[in-house]
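step=encode ok
step=design start
structure_in=
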């Protein structure tokens, strides 16, 4: 069962995908996220990377809809989202697959120089896709960057995502991975 803190964080994640802010997730929300991500990355709509990204997010939507759309209305409500994540977080293998996929997506789009690390500027671009002001980066990035080397490596991001999804400690740095909640 999800805790109140997990629900607050998952509501934040839900709102990040809810591109038109109507309180439900639909296929078009995932299309809009793909367009924003491609635009931030500077990919043309017909580039192989853009097409791959669009396909990945389309598949993510189909998996989400197939698992979470309990009333089969072609949209995901916040309650369906919570039920879905309650199931995902209880299944370590399923969780690991989803988080690894999200991590790869983040690095594919935002690791501009392909060095396997994300700087504060690259993290700010990630947040901007979801209409989170870059002013938060100066506050949250030092908390996310545990070893204070100025970058987040893939392993760092995975650990932070684990905290985001599982931690019930309100002070855990991973809670801020997608900005304030």
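sequence_out=
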């Amino acid at each position: 069962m999800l805790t109140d803190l997990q629900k607050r964080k998952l509501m934040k994640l839900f709102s990040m995908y809810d591109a038109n802010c109507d309180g439900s997730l639909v296929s078009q929300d995932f299309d809009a996220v793909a367009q924003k991500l491609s635009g931030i990355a500077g990919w043309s709509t017909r580039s192989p990377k853009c097409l791959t990204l669009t396909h990945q997010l389309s598949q993510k939507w189909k998996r989400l809809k197939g698992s979470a759309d309990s009333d089969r209305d072609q949209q995901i409500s916040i309650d369906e989202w919570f039920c879905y994540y309650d199931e995902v977080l209880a299944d370590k293998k399923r969780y690991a697959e989803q988080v690894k996929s999200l991590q790869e997506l983040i690095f594919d789009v935002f690791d501009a120089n392909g060095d396997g690390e994300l700087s504060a500027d690259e993290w700010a671009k990630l947040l901007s896709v979801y209409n989170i002001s870059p002013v938060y980066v100066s506050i949250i990035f030092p908390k996310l960057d545990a070893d204070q080397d100025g970058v987040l490596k893939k392993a760092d991001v995975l650990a932070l995502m684990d905290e985001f999804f599982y931690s019930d400690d309100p002070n855990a740095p991973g809670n801020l991975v997608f900005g304030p909640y």
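step=design ok
step=annotate ok -> The beta strands are 117-119, 151-153.
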